[in-house]
Design a protein that fits this description.
By secondary structure, this protein is an alpha/beta fold. The protein has helices at residues 36-44, 88-98, 111-127, 152-161, 177-196; strands at 24-30, 56-57, 62-69, 72-80, 101-107, 135-140, 165-168. A 7-stranded mixed β-sheet has the order 2-3-4-1-5-6-7, with helices on both faces. The protein binds guanosine-5'-diphosphate. Guanosine-5'-diphosphate binds at residues 30, 32-38, 140-141, 143-144, 170-172.
């Protein structure tokens, strides 16, 4: 499924040249500890097999992979971000301009990470000028039922306010993680088709 001809990650403006088959750049955003690395590992296939040949880890936590959504192939370049303790502003601005779409993660067991997701959503609106950039608010760690601090309805309401989709996931149980990626691709396709029309 890995096409070597598409292994070079283009640095030009994302999305504008969105032909079918060109990679979609999806950025993982969220506070530290919410599960971004776990998401990236599942995407890379490392959770299934020790050597994930079907995904090229290009360093800088970038992974490109072709997946099938609704019977049609889609190539996703996944960018995992992290928040350095110091001087994070610069890297973050870069991340916020790098994506065609964003998975905005928080942990349902950590209210501070939920508030952080709201802040990131606001910053994203500022730095990502393109209208209708697909964003999914992802409440991860829903397996930790007794440690839950953020209810499903709070997550859903927040997504409604911020005009984005919402899903709860458990990277630990591999629950809904692929659904989040598939939902992202569906939104990107809708946007592409709207643009083409
Ligand atoms: P990151 O800092 O956002 O990259 O977070 P990590 O992916 O490193 O996850 C932080 C910790 O949370 C690790 O110990 C993970 O194993 C754990 N973790 C991530 N996702 C889940 C989840 O869905 N459920 C549970 N129970 N633990 C999780």
């Amino acid at each position: 499924s890995w096409s070597s001809s598409e292994s070079v990650i283009s640095t030009d403006s994302a999305g504008d040249t969105a032909e079918p088959g060109s990679p979609y750049r999806v950025v993982l955003l969220g506070a530290s500890g919410v599960g971004k690395t776990a998401f990236a590992r599942i995407f890379a296939g490392a959770a299934d097999s020790m050597d994930s040949d079907d995904c090229e880890l290009c360093g800088d936590d970038v992974c490109e992979k072709e997946i099938e959504v609704d019977g049609e192939p889609a190539t996703i370049t996944l960018l995992d971000t992290w928040e350095a303790e110091t001087g994070r502003g610069c890297a973050q601005e870069h991340d916020m301009q790098a994506g065609d779409a964003y998975l905005l993660l928080y942990s349902v067991t950590d209210r501070a990470s939920f508030l952080r997701a709201s802040e990131l959503r606001i910053t994203l609106r500022r730095f990502s000028p393109a209208q209708h950039t697909p964003i999914i608010l992802v409440g991860n760690k829903c397996d930790l039922v007794r440690r839950r601090e953020v209810s499903v309805s709070e997550g859903r309401d927040c997504a409604a306010v911020f005009d984005c989709k919402f899903i709860e996931t458990s990277a630990a149980m591999q629950h809904n993680v692929w659904e989040a990626f598939h939902g992202m691709v569906r939104q990107l396709r809708l946007r592409r088709d709207t643009k083409a029309a």
